[in-house]
TrEMBL record:
PANTHER family listed in its UniProt record: INNER MEMBRANE PROTEIN, UPF0126 INNER MEMBRANE PROTEIN YADS-RELATED
Protein name from the UniProt record: Trimeric intracellular cation channel family protein
Localization: Cell membrane
Alphabetical UniProt keywords: Cell membrane, Membrane, Transmembrane, Transmembrane helix
Chain segments annotated as transmembrane: 6-25, 32-52, 58-80, 89-106, 118-138, 150-169, 175-193
Family: Belongs to the UPF0126 family.
Domain Glycine transporter: 7-80, 92-166
Membrane topology: Multi-pass membrane protein
Pfam families per UniProt: Gly_transporter
InterPro entries documented for this protein: Gly_transporter
Length: 203
């Protein structure tokens, strides 16, 4: 279980770092800018989660996440010109990172706090906050706030919620992790492809 969580965490760091690096490439930033922007979504949400939980910040305890993010930034710098649509890749890399991080964040918060509500809230924070930081630095409206980017935080909520529900029902472990990640990613993917969105209040 611990090894699986580690690999999910590193996978989340990798794809979120790619999303940050692609955003930097779209803005015409140099290598340093690409590295900085790759790190923001890769470690931003998890940093906030650990600070709220009063836990040692994960990338200070172990620098694996930093190295993975740097590798992702380097690969994006080298091969970005081969990507036909950087925005398309950015959206899907972000969706994968969101699914992985919201579940990893919920698992850690549940272990530390013992509260499903806290776990869901910090799972969403882990999945969403880093992307918000990335978009703010790029002087763009964050994906979570855009009208055309449907079911963003909602997908993270569903993923974290499914993990906590399965844990409550006694299915904690790899099955819960895979089911929750699949739920978050499928929700986000279907929203992207089908244009799903939450209803707005009538004015």
């Amino acid at each position: 279980m611990h090894d699986l969580l580690f690999y999910f965490d590193m996978a989340g760091v990798f794809v979120f770092a790619i999303s940050g690096a692609l955003a930097a490439v779209r803005k015409g930033m140099d290598l340093f800018g690409i590295i900085v922007l790759a790190l923001m979504p890769a470690v931003g949400g998890g940093t906030i989660r650990d600070l709220v939980l009063d836990q040692p910040v994960f990338w200070i305890v172990s620098t694996h996440s930093i190295w993975v993010a740097l590798i992702a930034a380097g690969l994006t710098f080298l091969f970005a010109r081969h990507l036909e649509s950087r925005m398309r890749w950015l959206i899907w890399a972000d969706a994968a990172g969101l699914a992985l991080f919201c579940v990893v964040g919920a698992e850690k918060a549940l272990v530390v706090s013992g509260s499903p509500m806290v776990a869901i809230m910090l799972g969403v924070t882990t999945g969403v906050a880093g992307g918000v930081i990335r978009d703010v630095i790029c002087n763009e409206i964050p994906l979570v706030m855009r009208v055309d980017e449907y079911f963003y935080a909602t997908a993270a909520f569903f993923g974290a919620g499914v993990y906590c529900l399965m844990d409550y029902l006694g299915y904690a472990g790899p099955i819960a992790l895979w089911a929750a990640i699949a739920t978050a990613f499928t929700t986000r993917a279907m929203a992207i492809l089908k244009g799903w969105r939450l209803p707005k209040a009538l004015r």
